């Protein structure tokens, strides 16, 4: 949040939501729920978050994640008859039409196309191999309570996850900029089709950036949402929740309210002294160009690491206010804020002859 203050209105809204709409643990409509910080994995709210449950079409988050890892999203394929014969929600693939994987991903995530999921799997190594890749990806993320039987979330005995592990999958997917773009898109047109995102939070919650809805009779209403505010990204998951839209708004507001604005440095603060060679002095201060703030959870300030980019030494002459690199603040390896550094003073060459004006000034007034 370089050079920016905190939006006071949003903080007040957070506090109001906490008073009026805050769900206590056990008070949600959801069978299971969790909210995590997408960057650090910190659990901010949890209710039966480790219970194995079916997740319906939120399965498609992993489907998209695996497909994105295959690359070449603009390659085309011809739709096979088998892709068009899948039950449930559909992007209405037509046999023998030609589409790209990218277009199909939009049909997968916006229209929740079960046919899109099967098509993607079929074109990315075949259905069985693709489902194995989904399970392999879950294992690589350290998940032990997630298993996939298909790429679309249709009911199956051995198809399950937990609210917490689904949040971890989503946080991983959000690291892909293409995934972020897809799930935050309201409408998408390809040919004669226009897909509309089923995620109502994109229009009802200002900070929402995705992610996916789901429903089957066995799983109930399932929802995964993500929202960004003041440089922090949260992921909320509810499984089997008849009041999911309202629950997610309340959960996100509750958890954003846990963050507090912290000033990391003020404009003009000296960040470090840099060694100077060949000058009249041996060091020069590097100072911050802007005031930088970040919204942090209690205890995170002490965990921040600073990384400085730029030369570690410099040579005279040094020009005051010239660019001198960058300072970055990281939390668990994730960059939260940054600022430009400038030289806080000028350094003359060690044997540089003084100008006529300087010599005249010294003659008249001395060296003070």
Verbal overview:
The chain is of the alpha+beta class and 368 residues long. The protein has 10 helices and 17 strands. The strands form 5 sheets. Strands 14-16-17-12-11-15 form a 6-stranded mixed β-sheet, with no helix packed on it. A 5-stranded antiparallel β-sheet has the order 2-1-9-8-7, with helices on both faces. The two termini are 42 Å apart.
Strand line-up of the largest beta sheet? 14-16-17-12-11-15
The succession of helices and strands, N to C, reads HEEHEEHHHHHEEHEEEHEEEEEEEEH
Gyration radius from CA atoms, angstroms? 27 Å
Compute the number of helices: 10
Which structural category do the helix and sheet elements fall into?
A: alpha+beta
Low-confidence stretches: 1-22
Principal-axis shape equals elongated
Number of strands: 17
What proportion of the residues form beta strands (DSSP E)?
A: 25-35%
Average residue-wise pLDDT = 91
Kindly state the percentage of residues in helix: 25-40%
Looking at how many chains there are and whether they match, the oligomeric state comes to: single chain
What is the distance, rounded to the nearest whole angstrom, between the alpha carbons of the first and last residues?
42 Å
Largest sheet: 6 strands, mixed
């Amino acid at each position: 949040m370089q050079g920016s203050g905190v939006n006071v209105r949003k903080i007040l809204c957070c506090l109001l939501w906490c008073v009026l709409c805050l769900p206590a643990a056990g008070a949600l409509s959801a069978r299971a729920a969790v909210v995590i910080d997408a960057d650090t994995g910190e659990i901010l709210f949890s209710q039966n978050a480790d219970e194995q449950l079916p997740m319906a079409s939120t399965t498609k988050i992993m489907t998209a994640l695996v497909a994105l890892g295959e690359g070449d999203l603009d390659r085309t394929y011809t739709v096979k008859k088998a892709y068009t014969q899948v039950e449930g929600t559909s992007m209405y693939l037509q046999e023998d039409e030609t589409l790209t994987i990218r277009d199909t991903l939009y049909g997968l995530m916006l229209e929740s196309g079960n046919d899109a999921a099967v098509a993607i799997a079929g074109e990315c190594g075949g259905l069985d191999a693709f489902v194995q890749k989904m399970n392999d990806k879950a294992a690589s993320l350290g998940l032990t309570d997630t298993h996939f039987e298909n790429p679309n979330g249709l009911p199956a005995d051995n198809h399950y996850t937990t609210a917490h592990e689904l949040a971890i999958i989503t946080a991983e997917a959000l690291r892909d900029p293409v995934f972020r773009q897809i799930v935050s898109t309201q409408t998408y047109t390809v040919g004669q089709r226009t897909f509309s995102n089923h995620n109502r939070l994109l229009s009802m919650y200002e900070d929402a950036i995705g992610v996916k809805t789901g429903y089957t009779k066995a799983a109930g209403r399932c929802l995964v949402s993500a929202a960004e505010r003041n440089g922090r990204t949260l992921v909320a998951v509810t499984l089997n929740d008849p009041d999911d839209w309202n629950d997610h708004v309340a959960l996100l507001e509750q958890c954003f309210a846990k963050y507090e604005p912290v000033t990391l440095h003020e404009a003009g603060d000296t960040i470090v002294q840099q060694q100077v060679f060949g000058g009249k002095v041996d060091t020069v201060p590097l100072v911050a160009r802007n005031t930088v703030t970040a919204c942090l959870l209690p205890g995170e300030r002490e965990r921040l690491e600073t990384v400085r980019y730029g030369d570690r030494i410099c040579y005279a002459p040094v020009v005051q206010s010239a660019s001198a690199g960058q300072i970055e603040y990281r939390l668990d390896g994730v960059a939260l804020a940054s600022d430009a550094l400038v030289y806080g003073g000028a350094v003359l060459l060690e044997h540089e002859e003084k100008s006529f004006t300087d010599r005249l000034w010294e003659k008249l007034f001395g060296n003070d």
